[in-house]
Amino acid sequence: MTSPCSFPGRPPLTPRTHDPQASITSPPPPLPPDPLDRAVPSPFCVLPSPTPPPPPLPPPPMKVAPPLIYGLEKSRLLKEALEKAGPAPKGREDVKRLLEQCKDRFRGDLQWILFCADLPSLIQEGPQCGLVALWMAAAVLKTPGGIPLETLVRVAMERGYTMQGEMFSVADMGKLAQETLGCQAELLCGGLGGPNRDCVLKHLIAGQPLLVPYDEDHNHAPCQKKGHKAHWAVSAGVLLGVRSVPSSGYVEDSQLPGLFHPVPGRPCQPPPLPEEDSPGTVFLLSKQGKSWHYQLWDYEQVRDSNLQLTDFSPARAADGRVYVVPAGGVQAGLCGQALLLSPRESSH
User: Fold this and answer.
1) Which of 129, 183, 268, 335 is catalytic?
2) Looking at the chain, which terminus has fewer C-beta neighbours within 10 angstroms, N or C?
């Protein structure tokens, strides 16, 4: 018979005897654990300790402005614009484009002979026009292994020829060319006219480069600003207007009638040089550090610009930078001077 105070599966309750002293001095003993209680989860559970949040990320490093380099921002913008316009054109294609554009400038009573060595292009950063022109000339001289522009800049600074990349001395440029390119450098004084004219033209006909300082106009062409816009260019080609083309070693251009080229790999008879007082008969094919493209300049225009380089630019004098200018100033360093470069083993 089941006790009215018991439940199936539970042990019978045992009546407790009342002990007044025990109820005062100590708490009643705990009840034995109920098996049913083990089956029911406790309403109170211990949650695991929350994972502490990760430490905050360190603040980003402060951006340090790059050092100011003269003309660098302008040059980068120029480079980006040129890159968007497309890659640098190949030499012969660019020459053909230029001659096609300029054909109205050529006298119709003459035939024309083009002598042209292929020049690479390089856009300058800051006042590095002379060093960039020298780098271009190195390709024509076939300097073994080539030479980085950074090397030219470093050596020029170490020798005290420049502070910002500028070159205001043709004589220093000649010494730098001899040291870095291992070439022969002939300094011309007295301008590009007179007896120097034939020397320059024969040098270009032979395929050797000419470095020449001049005043640069807004379209990069020579102008006359008294040296305030002094700039450097390299010429490695010349276009001659002649009465008749020698019969040996020349071929007429298939697209430009009246234009002749020397046949590669064949000896050609040198043409008679136009006289100095015959305008519009000699054009220099040049490059400089602010354009991918060849420039075609009247020889007399280059000669006259080179002869009037006398003053240091007031804008440069006021820009707070230090430049290396030789004793006697721009006139002593640049005026009426040019540099003929050739491989060391060759001679005129």
Assistant:
1) 129
2) N
